[in-house]
Amino acid sequence: YFGYRWYPHQDFVETMLSWNQRHPIELLRKIDDHRMYGIHKMQQGGLLYTFYDENYAMTHTAWMSKTLSYSDFADIHIGDTDKKVAALEPVTEQWAGRAMATSSLHPVYDGFTQELLLKDGFLEIHYNMEEQPNYAVGDWIITDMKFYPDFRVEYDWGRDVPFVWDYSILPEDYPK
Question: How far apart are the C-alpha atoms of 118 and 68, rounded to whole Å?
């Protein structure tokens, strides 16, 4: 379990306490009265960042195995496969494997979004499995990429006031 996003239309909310009972938080940072994050060393490698609101509800996560910048992704484009991203960030293989294991019979419709916490912003890469002449069946194809240089992602979900998720962390908390 590693890719978590809280959606307001879901009934289930992961709390810091429930998460910590299953996956102990190794370091917890309180940024201000409304935001904190935990850091976990993952058995598969890298660091998982779990972000919480003022009510200790987990809102989102990011998983990285090394510190990267947006410029490292200059040669990654829509239409490329997950394997090209995995050459930069090996955690991508974990995301792809998990997506395959949990997708419906139609992964083309499900897809998955990888959250990449970079030192100069936040990058979302969305993948879908598509059968194309240049790709073998079973490859995840990049269908969308969005970069947020301020680390803040806004979701409105039809509400008057959008949810803003801040993925920024302290410089010393990036993977070494």
Answer: 5
